[in-house]
Amino acid sequence: MINLKDQIAVVTGSARGIGRAMAEKFAEAGAKVVITDILEDGEKTAQEIAEKYGVETKFIVSNVTDYESAKNLVKTTLEVFGKIDIFVNNAGITRDGLFLRMKEDDFDRVISVNLKGVFNCTQAVFKAMVKQRSGSIINISSVIGLIGNVGQTNYAASKAGILGITKSVAREGARRGIRVNAIAPGFIKTDMTHILKEEVQKQILSQIPMGEMGTPEDIANTALFLASDLSKYITGQVITIDGGMVM
Ligand code: NAD
User: Fold this and answer.
1) For residue 19, which of 9, 14, 25, 207 is within the disulfide window of CB 3.0 to 4.6 Å?
2) What is the pTM of this model?
3) Where does ligand 1 bind, in terms of residues with CB under 6 Å?
4) How far is CA 24 from its chain centroid?
5) What is the DSSP string of 12-25?
6) pLDDT value at position 70?
7) Which residues are catalytic?
């Protein structure tokens, strides 16, 4: 069993969905977790995880699009817990629309949260991890960043960009004890996919060889592996979790 006792994990966008599932998985393995989100619901999430797994948790309100807010997230975590072993860039949004009709604002907003947010948080935490000479950074990309999708030019660009950040920072961190990997989920049952129309969901299912959507726990299990020493010789990689959609 993976043991993360005495480890400190931070997961962005973890008030709900995949982020929450990863935070729970780390807590179950004994880590202390920082829940951070723009949603105040994160406070409740942090309390519930602390009660369920008997670990220390903290909620910090943070907006990944704001450079100072990201810096403050890392600073506050270091003040409270003294170090950061695991950092997951999970916060993400969609603003779908066909390319010709896509509003400039919808392009900018998705890039700002999904891609610039990863830059903001990673630069802040990388500094701390360089000092520690250890750390695992996990970036949540998407299969859409690998294969593109109708109506998701902005999202695909942001998620492909995350892979570029992952591989570049992995190279810069490799001799400093820092590993950086990405997870590319396929279609996972969360609020993000719940809003899709029934016919869109049916069409998605027809593209998945395993014939069903994944669960947040499917992603959390791989995040646990990447966070732990079981993956100590793995860096700069992208792990696809999609029921066989992209092979
Ligand atoms: P979700 O909408 O349920 O959760 C996303 C969380 O991010 C929310 O709690 C939200 O408040 C938070 N967030 C949004 N903007 C933020 C900001 N500026 N700063 C901080 N937090 C912010 O979505 P989810 O399905 O759990 O998605 C989590 C991640 O997984 C996202 O990066 C998403 O792109 C990725 N992903 C999801 C799927 C899927 O099928 N659900 C597939 C591939 C990738």
Assistant:
1) 14
2) 0.98
3) 12-13, 15-19, 37-39, 63-65, 90-93, 113, 117, 140, 142, 185, 187-188, 190-193
4) 13
5) ET-SSHHHHHHHHH
6) 98
7) 155
Q: Which two three-digit tokens encode residue 133?
A: 């000479």
What is the whole-number distance in angstroms between the Cα of residue 191 and the centre of ligand 1?
9
- Enter the tokens of residue 162: 């995350």
The band of 200, judged by pLDDT with boundaries at 50, 70 and 90, is confident
Query: Which ipTM score applies to this complex?
Result: 0.99
**What residue type is assigned to position 192 of the chain?**
M
**Residue 11 reports pLDDT greater than 90:** yes
Residue with tokens 């049952």: 189
- Residue 243 counted as an annotated binding residue: no
E strand intervals along the chain: 8-12, 32-37, 57-61, 86-89, 135-140, 178-185, 238-241
Residues 6+ apart with CB under 8 A from 57: 23, 27, 32, 33, 34, 35, 46, 47, 49, 50
